[in-house]
Write a structure and sequence with these properties.
- This protein has 211 residues and is mainly alpha-helical.
- Helix 1 packs antiparallel against helix 2, helix 1 packs antiparallel against helix 4 and helix 5 packs antiparallel against helix 6.
- It starts with a helix and ends in a 20-residue tail after the last helix.
């Protein structure tokens, strides 16, 4: 038996899932950057409005900071409910309605447009947060990673065909299994980039408004 089984049954699915997990991480970085930049733009619009008092400007900034921190905290947890986030993001709309006389219509339209982009970023981040790479494919890889030594060891023993070199079998099988388990663990760490456990996870503190 050659290494065709290793390639088809294990290596190809592992590479596929690692690539998918890496793309999820890169997409998460894009959405986080858009999320923060849009919030900062809304903040700049509101702070530059002369119709708002200093207290009202401070109130608007507090709302945006609350949205920012709540989203980042949501990503770091394993809960998937968006009810709390929906309530907090609606505060911007309520604020603009209450300050209708102080805000120009053009300014309100700009705030709503950028808040739409904020909502889109939140939904995209939540999708990455709550959905993983195909569970069945990951389970398939896990099964074959642990079953493979029992298939591969007899093949190596047959190829060596010398009792004095059986120690080579142990080295080859252990080294191969170490590589496969390492790749499997890399994929597992990349799959959820918000828990701050793996070395390649996203540092959410870098996306705070008040960093």
């Amino acid at each position: 038996m050659d290494l065709t089984l290793l390639h088809i049954a294990i290596i190809f699915p592992l590479v596929f899932t690692i690539r998918g997990s890496f793309r999820r991480r890169e997409k998460a970085l894009e959405h986080l950057s858009a999320f923060r930049s849009n919030l900062k733009t809304v903040q700049a619009f509101l702070m530059s409005n002369n119709g708002l008092t200093e207290q009202e400007k401070t109130e608007s900034v507090d709302i945006l900071i609350e949205i920012n921190e709540t989203v980042l905290q949501h990503l770091a947890k394993t809960t998937y409910s968006l009810k709390e986030l929906d309530i907090i993001t609606d505060k911007v709309f309520q604020f603009t309605l209450e300050k209708d006389s102080s805000l120009k219509r053009s300014l309100r339209d700009k705030v709503f447009r950028f808040m739409r982009d904020v909502h889109r970023s939140i939904e995209n981040l939540h999708s990455i947060h709550s959905h993983r790479t195909p569970i069945s494919l990951k389970a398939y890889c896990g099964v074959f990673v642990y079953v493979f030594p029992f298939i591969y060891a007899p093949t190596i023993i047959y190829a060596v065909d010398s009792e004095s070199l059986y120690w080579v079998v142990y080295i080859v099988v252990i080294l191969t299994e170490f590589i496969l388990i390492s790749l499997y663990n890399i994929q597992d760490d990349l799959e959820y980039p918000f828990d701050n456990i793996g070395t390649d996870d996203i540092n959410l503190d870098n996306f705070k408004i008040s960093r």
